[in-house]
Amino acid sequence: MAGPDAAVAIRSFAKAKLHLDYPYMPVAAIEELLDRCETDTKAVIEKQKPVMVEIKSRVSFFSLPAELRNVIYELATTPGPDSSVKEEQHARRHCSPNIPAIIQSSQRLRNEALPIYYGMNSFKVYFCCIRESQVRYFDILQTQEWLRSIGKTSAAMIKKFGIEVEVEAAVRSSHHMFGALCARLGCTEQQLTDGVTPGKWNQDLLRKALPTALTELGIAEGSIKFQIKEW
């Protein structure tokens, strides 16, 4: 602790102030006053050293007010654009939430920061079915696996979860692709098509099948935003 340095700095400031406010005070008197000031400052600082060491040992991140810690958690877990959980459209697809390091630092940090991470960020799953190779992966199994890995408690913290679906009408021209898609959704071909307007799909079936698979694992229905792109 820089006790002597602080005392010297105080003496220098006090000297300039005394000369300014008391221009007619003898130099010897000013120096005597400054000597006392410097000596007393050093003595008080030295006396307080054990007290300061004890206080310093008690100060930690968790001694900060909860409101301030929450602000820090928000800055650390939502640093930029919304985080996303993606369904990759290939054999090694995965759900990657990119959990910030602060959440993995300690159990207490995890308990305090996790609700902010899941509650403040947006998570999005994208299902695309415009090529035969993508039909095999047109399901929500990987997302379900991710939700199981974080548990229902964490899943319930998610406030913004988007599902975006893109299925082209050309898929139905391929019996193999169409049949595989129906199998993935657990429905019949008749159920998946409305049978009225060519090129249309049963959007109600899609809306029901995919979000239901998520709510069963903890995500609140009101947190899910479902979007079907133009086909």
Descriptive report:
With 231 residues, the protein is mainly α. The chain contains nine helices and three strands. A three-stranded parallel beta sheet has the order 1-2-3. The chain is rod-shaped, with a radius of gyration of 33 Å. 15% of the residues are buried.
Q: What is the subunit arrangement here?
A: single chain
Give the N-to-C terminal Cα separation.
70 Å
The count of DSSP E runs of length 2 or more, i.e. the number of strands, is: 3
Spans of at least 5 consecutive residues whose pLDDT stays below 50 are: 83-96
Radius of gyration: 33 Å
Note the beta-strand portion: 5-15%
Shape: rod-shaped
Please provide the ordered H/E string of secondary-structure elements: HHHHEHHEHHHE
The count of helical stretches stands at 9
Q: Could you report the average pLDDT, rounded to the nearest whole number?
A: 79
Strand order of the largest sheet: 1-2-3
The percent of residues in helical segments reads 40-55%
- Structural class, judged by helices and strands? mainly alpha
Summarize the model shown.
The protein is 54% helix and 9% strand.
Topology diagram in text:
Elements: H1 3-21, H2 27-58, H3 66-77, H4 107-120, E1 122-129, H5 132-135, H6 141-155, E2 160-167, H7 175-185, H8 189-192, H9 203-215, E3 224-228
Parallel strand pairs: 1-2, 2-3
Helix pairs in contact: 1-2, 3-4
